[in-house]
TrEMBL record:
Pfam families: HEAT_2. This is HEAT repeat. The keyword Transmembrane helix applies. It comes from Priestia megaterium Q3. The keyword Transmembrane helix applies.
Length: 349
């Protein structure tokens, strides 16, 4: 028994020693990090003005040449802050040229680092600074089988911004389709010529690419594509019709009531809902009788948007009061009452 207690004490003492060593290690690392950060901040303060002058004026007397890790970190942080804050092609071009000369070797090495976080941070920096010197390495990295989805997505964003032709191939022939969010992000990054490339080949694209492309027309208010949307609101694909109607609604484009009649009778409640929204944007009194029918819809959101759209049309509020007073349909009556009260009109049971 005595021997067992001694073993327990020995184990406890060993664990305590390990814990003390581990805490000591953490404290030492923290102290080192704090010392490193203090030196970086001090260096940033000493060069901030000179770097700012150089980037704006290209005054070689103020050019900064970092020589070690502390100076590289300081310049990188300042440059990142300037890049996020400044406007204008000239200053951004100066930032890119300076970053390419100073940081290309660093980022080239980090793209091959074993740690994923280091590779991702290098990719983010390449995008922020607009580096063009590593695009060949980025293409190679994208085509590697062991590159992660996050790395490939970030590389795609960079290739789009740099207008490298590979991005079209990678987006349309991906072994695994990108997420809808990622497609939207890429389309939102594109310039008008790049976006038009995808419009031109729309019929050849998979639907998972077509849908976010249509979404971005509405999100980015691309009024030049209204006719394109009107064409695809007649598509045989239910989802394409819904997305086209949604983008037309986002653009606040007033269609004719006659163009919406078929959509108000769709089997898809989302399509019926978007159509009711657009009828309100027509401000055409011919749409009131159609919206009255939508007040009887089985789906709450269709009924709600129908009543709301009625009140956007001249004489629509009076029409909705009439519906409330005369209808025998409970759905219509309840929805009319709700929206009339929201409009400040008291209804009497």
């Amino acid at each position: 028994m005595g021997m067992s207690i001694q073993v327990v004490y020995a184990l406890f003492g060993g664990l305590l020693l390990l814990l003390v060593c581990f805490l000591s290690y953490l404290l030492i690392q923290k102290a080192r990090l704090n010392a490193f950060r203090a030196k970086v901040e001090s260096y940033k303060d000493s060069i901030k003005e000179s770097l700012f002058i150089y980037l704006y004026r290209k005054d070689e007397e103020h050019r900064i040449e970092p020589k070690n890790k502390i100076e590289l970190a300081g310049v990188e942080e300042l440059l990142s802050g300037f890049s996020a804050a400044v406007q204008g092609d000239d200053i951004r071009n100066n930032i890119t040229l300076y970053a390419e000369k100073v940081f290309t070797p660093k980022y080239k090495k980090e793209l091959h680092h074993s740690r994923w976080s280091v590779r991702m941070n290098a990719l983010y920096a390449i995008e922020d600074f607009g580096l063009t010197t590593l695009t060949d390495q980025l293409v190679e990295m994208y085509e590697k089988k062991n590159s992660t989805a996050a790395e490939k997505n970030q590389i795609l964003k960079i290739l789009v911004k740099l207008n490298r032709p590979e991005f079209v191939i990678y987006m349309t022939n991906a072994s695994k389709p990108l997420s809808e969010f990622m497609y939207r992000s890429l389309f939102g990054t594109m310039n008008s010529e790049q976006f038009q490339q995808f419009i031109n080949k729309f019929e050849d694209l998979q639907e998972e690419i077509q849908l976010p492309l249509i979404d971005m027309i509405g999100i980015n208010h691309k009024l030049e594509y209204i006719d394109f949307l009107k064409m695809h609101m007649k598509s045989s694909s239910e989802e394409l019709r819904i997305r086209s109607l949604k983008s037309l609604n986002a653009l606040s484009f007033p269609l004719k009531v006659e163009e919406l009649t078929k959509h108000l009778q769709s089997d898809m409640w989302q399509e019926r809902m978007m159509a009711t929204k657009l009828v309100g944007k027509t401000r055409d009194e011919k749409g009131l009788s159609l919206l009255e029918q939508s007040l009887k819809d089985s789906h709450f959101l269709v009924r709600s948007n129908a009543a709301q759209s009625m009140m956007k049309i001249p004489t629509g509020t009076e029409y909705l009061v009439h519906v409330y007073e005369t209808t025998d349909d409970k759905f219509s009556k309840d929805m009319a009452a709700e929206w009339l009260e929201k409009g400040g009109i008291t209804v009497v049971e």
